[in-house]
User: What shape does this take?
Amino acid sequence: MKELLFKKIKEYDTIILHRHSRPDLDALGSQRGLALVLRNAYPNKKIYMVGDMSARYAFLGSMDEISDEVYQNAFVIITDVAVSHMVSDNRYKLAKDVFIIDHHKNASDITENIICNPSKIAVCELITELLLEEGYTIPKDAATALFGGIVTDSGRFQYGETSGNTLRVAGKLLDLGADKEFIYKNIYTETLAERQMKNWFGTQFKTTKEGVAYLKNGKEVFEKFNVDFFNISRGMVGVMAGILEIPIWCNFTLDMENDVIIGEFRSRELSIVDIAKKYGGGGHDLACGATLHSWEEVDLVIEDFNQLLRG
Ligand SMILES: [Mn+2]
Assistant: This one.
């Protein structure tokens, strides 16, 4: 597959890079890192990056605006996602050829041209290795983008698949000039409104006697804070993290658009993914979630976490 990828890269004059929507830094870093490496290697090719942007990661740089015609004889590379409904900008379907580089466990419904390695904590780790093995030069700004993806997807080198190799690859990127101060400065800075919102949620969560902390966010929180669903659902679960007495914490947020309640579940040590699966959800052992249909069902989930901690 690797040979096929680089053969296609060499073959096409236009290469368009896609990644998942609502991008995190691994999605943006892999897209940008790869784009900058290819632009450097092939100054005569047209290399574009497309997709929605998140204000959070706008510091990395903007996307390109391209017309549909550009896709006509183009090669698309999609990073950090393999399933069609999560790809940002579905015009990838207009391309002549598509290739995916990913590290998630999902099977692809887009193409069989895929390099996917779930043992990598970040797709940026995988892409860095592929590029170095193939002898490409990684310019400084590409190294910074790739480094950013590794740092964030690994939770600053903490999570599951973080390996010696992860650190060696990140080390190589630093050797190549990756600007770690730039990345850390940006990921550890938030707006005053964001900080104040977090502080408010930090005073709102409840705890059970077993040690489950939870937030139940209904319509009223969206009236109080003018933010979108993900800023609360994903964004606020962390306010309950890192508390000695709380081994499990969860954030339940009403998704008004779809009239469901999204539960985000987190645990420090004990695997909770089976409880997420019991409610039709899934994810990782210590970080998972499920879609729930009533606040009564939410209480059942909390009770299951209580039970797990009692047992
Ligand atoms: Mn990723």
User: Anything to note?
Assistant: The two ends are 47 Å apart (CA to CA).
